[in-house]
Amino acid sequence: MTETRPIGSAILMLNLALEKGFTAQECLQNTGISQELIRDANAVIQTHQELVLIENLEKLDTSGQLALELGQHYHLTSYGIWGFALATSANLRSAIEVGLNYQALTFAFSTFSLHEDQEFAFLQVSCDHLSNELRQFVMERDASAMINIHRELFSPVMPIKEIHFDWGPSLEPDIYHNLFGITPKFNQAKNGVLFKRELLDLPLPSANEGSRKILMAQCQDLLDSRHKEDSTARRVRNYILVHLDQNISMQGLADTMSVSLRTLRRMLSQEDTSFRGLLDEVRETLAVELIQNTQLSLEEISYRLGYSDTANFFHAFKRWRGHAPNKLRSN
Hints:
By secondary structure, this protein is α+β, with helices and mostly antiparallel strands.
């Protein structure tokens, strides 16, 4: 998660809150977001400012359904280049891969991962880094937005089999059914959407490989521009890339930067990231690149990524992608 983000999501949430009868003063309290800034659609705000806005909305909402309604207002077009890149993908699997690779370009605070078995695919939503007070609200919003995007990709029907939440129902079943077309299953082990695996390979109506390649390049350029040259996260990424196969440790990094371990954790936390998260990000990116574009064995790739044995690499890759690395190569 980057430390800054476009103001578009905050504007979207504020507009719906105003329609519900809340005042701008109530919604923007302690956010540091002025009404003048809200009028600038090209403005950028700090991540923590949007989280304060969400916290305000969660406290103001007495209906219990504002988060779900908010998610329905996030459309493919709301996300700019990222949304267009999804829409031009060949199939849902390809679109999900784009979405997962460039999650940082979305408005979500949740993270998403795809898991498959022989019959079903499960797009999981996680948000464990937020406080319990915000977690359910954010996950309901992000899950609702995810479902809305899937429907738009299929223009307009996305045959969802089940929706899972790990909390109990707080609204009448009809409210959920009207929003999603089905009633979610509650008190489940994980949060996410279950659908037939075969849907992953159905062609999307707006597929265009030429446009997709251009949009993917633009997504990468945009993502790169969001990582400040002098940010701690960028310095950590560069260190990881250089020392990946040398028994890398956070303490070794802290020593190199001449800061304490505690200070390094705080610096990364201020940018809404962590050493473990950045290490996973770099390893996953390199793993996909090496598997798809080299003839290195999975054992050699595991070693280059700094794993002590191949089993640990396989376990990590399955956590990232929902399937074993050899499946990616076979495809």
